[in-house]
Amino acid sequence: MTLNILLAGFGGQGILFAGKVMAYAGMMEGKEISWLPSYGPEMRGGTANCSVCISDEKIGSPLVTNPDILIAMNLPSLEKFENDVVPGGTIIVDSSIIHKKVERDDVKTIYLDASSMAEENGLKGAANMVILGRMFAETSFCSYENLEKGLRKSVPARKADLVDSNLKAIGLGMKS
Amino acid sequence: MGEKVLMKGNEAIAEAAIAAGCRHFFGYPITPQTEVAAYMSKRMPKVGGVYLQGESEVASINMVLGAGAAGVRAMTSTSSPGISLMSEGISYMAGSDVPALIVNVQRGGPGLGGIQPSQADYFQATRSTGHGDFHLLVFAPSTVQETVDMISDAFDLADKYRMPAMILSDGMLGQMMEPVVLPDPKPVEQDKPWAAKGHNNERPHNVINSLYIQPQELEDLVRKRFEKYRTIMQNEQRAEEYLTEDADIIVVAYGASSRVSRSAVDKARAEGIKAGMIRPISLWPFPVKAVSKAADTAKAFLTVEMSMGQMVDDVRLVVAGRKPVEFYGRTGGMIPTPKEVYEQIVRINGGVC
């Protein structure tokens, strides 16, 4: 099984971090994984995106051009990547930020008020983790234990106090 | 061996160099390799090493020359335009037989070009990294783990043959994260009797120099160096052969484009096309033996590069007209997709079967 994931949004939404947690969790699960950020000029105030591959086999190109799962956290990202998703794939939309509907009918679309949910629960800025929680619930790409391990590995030591709030946000997404 | 961690290619380069006994890093920041220098600036002081940001690439490479001449493991890291600036110093190092490690995390060119991944510095790395008759050892990793393993080998071979070695990486491999197990640390001290590190009046002083004003003396020296190159060409060729044994079509690709090509080869195999891949790991010396052997059995070659076609010249030199050698490339920072490469394989397969 191979899961190609593309996460996209504004710089500062934690796109790269959410991808890193996914990748680390996949690694803890014993999968082959890769994580590739966009590092182009578009990062300055524009969109940031990140490719994550989680697979049972050796990973070829780490650049995800046709994702199985697209996580869109702003409108330009949805518009840019919507048509690249494989038929039968999944698009997770942060509907607090994106008010447009997905036009395709050959993919599964999940509208999640991730930013509002995070903010209402005192977890401002953790919409990325809410979406990660939902993506985890949809795919079961690893065990919950390994997801938590992946999170702990991804949070730098000086920010260790943020682990609990991130876990809470993941939990919100899982229950959504 | 340590535990498996997730690391960016650029950071893994730095950590692997420290594990290989390098305590002297000189460089100047440039995207997409800046993380190497940033990581070194944090780590070197903690391991008793030197991190120094030169005022330019020209200064940095000459610091590497100086440190290498004094017999310590020294390195620098930059991206394409930086190598152009360093080329004078690299030629001086080759002309003075000074070992060191030079990392090029390639980006699109020519000129300032772009900051996205590229493989357009193959000619520069394997043909002419500076003026004069010389070669560098050039190695091209395709995963973060291979990068780590290669750093230690490259330092060892640079010392063994007393010449600079280059790791030819690219923006994709530098920026991506993959699981990696870091090697156990090696001793920092190496015994180099030729090094200019102080003689305490106990031996004649060692001279590290690249100026030879008598033409006969210079010719003799260059010829001697080329005898060493011949030994290296014989003994240090490295390549991975993937499904080549029964392959009709053999893709030749290194580094990032070999990852894309591997996916394309797998897809071709799944569709019943006998495709395989040779992945040069040493670019100089070029893996002549692997490609030549394959030319006996394959029906056609397809070289895939993130350039307008550079390594394809080496493939054609080895195949020497025995079989068709085709080329597919993207450049300027564009990365070929597995689908594009697969379609080339299908097209060539239609022509030969």
Give a quick summary of the entry:
The complex is a heterodimer of chains A (176) and B (353). Chain A has 176 residues and is α/β, with parallel strands linked by helices.
What portion of the residues of chain B fall into strands of 2 or more residues? 15-25%
Shape of chain B: globular
Biggest interface: chains and residue counts? A-B, 21 and 24 residues
Structural class of chain B: alpha/beta
How many domains of chain B? The number is 2
Instruction: Please give the number of β-strands of chain B.
Output: 14
Give the H and E element order of chain A. Answer: EHEEEHEEHHHH
The number of distinct helices of chain A, counting runs of at least 4 residues, comes to 6
In the CATH hierarchy, the architecture of the largest domain in chain B is 3-Layer(aba) Sandwich
Number of H/I helices of chain B: 12
Strand content of chain A: 15-25%
Task: Kindly provide the radius of gyration of chain B, computed on alpha-carbon positions and rounded to a whole number of angstroms.
Answer: 21 Å
CATH fold annotation of the largest domain in chain B: Rossmann fold
Strand order of the largest sheet of chain A: 2-3-1-4-5-6
- Which CATH class of the largest domain in chain B is shown? Alpha Beta
Distance between the termini of chain A: 26 Å
What would you give as the CATH superfamily of chain A?
A: Pyruvate-ferredoxin oxidoreductase, PFOR, domain III
Q: Could you please say which CATH topology of chain A applies here?
A: Pyruvate-ferredoxin Oxidoreductase, domain 3
Main β sheet profile of chain B: 7 strands, mixed
**DSSP E strands of chain A, number:** 6
